[in-house]
Amino acid sequence: MCRYGYLILFLPLFYFFSQSIVAEPLSRNAKFTVVIDAGHGGKDPGALGATAKEKDITLKVAKKLGALIEENYDDVRVIYTRKSDVFVELNQRAQIANNAHADLFISLHCNALSKKQRSPQGVETFVLGLHRSKDNLDVAKAENAVILYEKDYSTKYQGFNPNEPESYIIFEFMTNKFLDQSVQLATWVQHSLVRNSKRVNRSVRQAGFLVLREVAMPSILIELGYISNKEDETFLKSASGQSSMANSIYKAFSAYKADYDKKSGLIVSANKREEVLLDETPEESTPATATSESIAAGNSEYRIQFLASPRKYGSKASAFKGLSPVDYYKDGSTYKYTYGSTSDKNEALRLLKKAQRNFKDAFIVEFRDGKRIR
What we know:
By secondary structure, the chain is α/β, with parallel strands linked by helices.
């Protein structure tokens, strides 16, 4: 069947999910509400390592994260989708968040590859969106496969099949009004896990996760590491590693909450929250700056966006992995870094291929008169 034939079949699914994404809360809570979702559970073990199970790791990190928030914030309500080893269906996880009119949804998971493949290691933080690489699609397939444990999943999810790429076409037509806030939190979480927990950085990504589709609030999904990697598994199953990751995510949450309070006009008393914000000194004094070719006014300029961070890096930062020239633009409090500059689309494709050697999720962005238009 052709691509557009599949689109017709999945339009009802698109309507179902889009309604939940754009739905407005019926009322606001007196307290900021965060829902912490420990992935998998019960009859669904999730990814399996040599000796550890994903469902156990996510639950322990979730409870540690929730405890940190509850200990330090009187104005935040923490809700868990599960607090024990029980199976919770994906749509029920979303319903818990939506029924609570939550302000934030954080889903915790562990990644894995089959034993036939050499496993990478590192953390990656996802937001809802169209996957830009096969790796992202594979992660989404693995996490969405949990619905196969549910009764009547084909009916419940309007014919969605987690193993069929055609099921994901609807993402091309979906808009998520919470994307900016989700990306901001995801960027801070990724940065904090890399900086504070010393995890290998696999960047912020977009992919089609069912659990994120149905929640009507800013939301992220964190892959805490590769349980199929020996070093990652050792860290993930250790009490110290779990505490470190919970603390890193907590720091990012604190930065997000402070920004939320500021934008909401709330007065926040000076306390230890201020100590956990993610500002830090750049790696060098010279900032990344524009070294692009001269583009005539009114003409399109193409750059390759490869990195987003709350941090302002120097021009030769190791995070750029040798890419030069590098420029950046600000989107809220996030620095978005771009490589190269050209008015020629073919040259832009060449630059993209080069950037994707080290940054698989790099993509082309278009500027006009110094402002991003696409």
